[in-house]
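Hello again,

I reread your note about wanting to compare the complex against the isolated chains. To keep things tidy I'm splitting this into two emails, and this first one only covers the full assembly. Below are the input lines as submitted, including protein chains and any nucleic acid or small-molecule components. They are followed by the predicted structure of everything together. The single-chain runs will come separately.
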Amino acid sequence: AQSVTQLGSHVSVSEGALVLLRCNYSSSVPPYLFWYVQYPNQGLQLLLKYTTGATLVKGINGFEAEFKKSETSFHLTKPSAHMSDAAEYFCAVSEVSSASKIIFGSGTRLSIRP
Amino acid sequence: DAGVIQSPRHEVTEMGQEVTLRCKPISGHDYLFWYRQTMMRGLELLIYFNNNVPIDDSGMPEDRFSAKMPNASFSTLKIQPSEPRDSAVYFCASRTSGGADTQYFGPGTRLTVL
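Full-complex prediction:
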């Protein structure tokens, strides 16, 4: 069975600092991996996704994530945080073979200090 | 495209009343998902449909919850009778058949049961 673990329910960084949100997954078959962002009072929207090919995936708003099969990780990073990045971030996984529902992590709330 | 449309955006009702939430998926999408989000339990998948057929309703909390998709452009989630613990934000999402395809979320319905 698939599962996703997001380390840290709340992360706080200073504006301009590196953002690192951690995600580890469990899947018995090759996975598709996603990061979604949720701004206050809005639905989730896709930041980036890994399907096949290049393991470093670039998304919107300067975010990127690297798929590391050996570590079963898909951590999200951004070199320099901006106040507008404050939001909740969800890592998610789906199995290539079943391709139906995706499993979301519990979310990490990112706060940005001025 | 207008995106996933949900109505109402806010619903306040009294315990014991019937509540109906509505969703219009993106045209051409053949998967539709209903989620519930609370502070305590995070984002939970309630049920999802493929080509208007319910595939997995294992996340539906109890018999008070029911969901239908009479056609490709409309789905409802009904709670009868409603209880205060049903208070949450309910999201609808849709996507196409590809397993790696992006799931598009609606803006959500914030339900408050008094």
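For quick reference: The first strand of chain A starts at residue 3 and ends at 7.

B.
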